[in-house]
Amino acid sequence: MEGGFDLIKFIHPEAIPYAILVVAGALLLNRIVASSLDALGERLTERRLQLKNIAAVSRFVVLVLATVVVVGTVFRLSEQVLLTIGGTAAVAIGFAFKDLLASLMAGIILLFDRPFQVGDRVSFAGEYGEVLEIGLRTVRIATLDDNLISIPNNRFLSDVVSSANAGALDQMCVFRFWIGCNEDFDRAKGIVFEACAASRYVYLEKPITIALREGPVPDGAERFAIQITAKAYVLDGRYETPFGTDVTERVLRAFRTEGIRTAGQIEWGPPGSGPAPEAEQAS
Fold it and tell me: What gap in Å lies between CA 225 and CA 182, rounded to an integer?
């Protein structure tokens, strides 16, 4: 109990209301800045990802400054205080909050080392989606089926993470179609190319490539087919799924018109996945 009173005497009670106002003001300021930059990013589409990253950095700066102000106002930071706090209490707090501190430091490293940025499409631990926020403790990712996933920051320092667009708006998408071995593959190849080039979502400043190979259909059945792989860029990563849907619809309609039979398999998903209703991406 005596130690408790020793600690209390180093606190300015009259400064606590001011500290609460500082914390509330910092949280409100972060919300205003984030919403303002998001709204500006919707108007200046080509700057959307840069504005998201400015919001992420400003969030860290505001919270760190607020912490410094609160600690400097509430506590009498004399040498005696530092020695008192730096003893057993500091060790206990260190053990209690080691994971939180590790995630905080990892978040700072992620912001400046930039293996990915806010707005990037990333694959991590079997999950794929858009990075919404790099927070003090976690990275929040919105998957393509609209789930919000929170991953501790420090996990990104030791595990492999893949960024689909690496800070750019445009992003490569890969589409695979299988046709029968006896079908007109030259015409099928042209159809797939035209479907990509004609889409409203395609980014034509980067090339569209088509590749052919013959092999087994990846559906468990022992049958061979011709695989047509198209690589094209979507103009904005947020249109990844509409782009994949548009290209697939165009190809299937044209195959039906031309009498080209598919091998019952269409694939557009993240690298290494099986058939899935998402567009495959690559950095």
Answer: 9
- Report d(CA 135, CA 142) in Å as an integer: 14
Q: In whole angstroms, how far apart are CA 94 and each of 65, 87, 109?
A: 21, 11, 20
Q: Could you write out the DSSP letters of every residue in 10-58?
A: TB-GGGHHHHHHHHHHHHHHHHHHHHHHHHHHHHSGGGHHHHHHHHHHH
Contact by Cβ (8 Å): 28, 34: no
One digit per residue, the tens of pLDDT, for the chain of length 283 reads 444 445 566 677 777 788 888 888 888 888 888 888 777 777 776 677 677 777 777 877 887 788 878 777 776 665 555 565 555 555 655 555 666 667 777 777 877 777 888 888 888 888 888 888 887 778 889 888 888 898 888 888 888 888 888 778 889 999 999 998 889 999 999 999 999 999 999 999 999 999 999 888 776 566 788 999 999 999 988 899 999 999 999 999 999 999 998 877 666 654 444 444 334 443 3
Side chain identity, residue 45? T
SS3 272: coil
Cβ(158)–Cβ(119) below 8 Å: no
Q: Which residues pair with 150 in a beta bridge?
A: 140
- Cα 203 to the center of its chain, rounded Å: 21
Regarding pTM above 0.85, the answer is: no
Q: How far is CA 117 from the centre of its chain?
A: 7
Q: How many residues does the chain have?
A: 283
- Report which DSSP code applies to 214: E
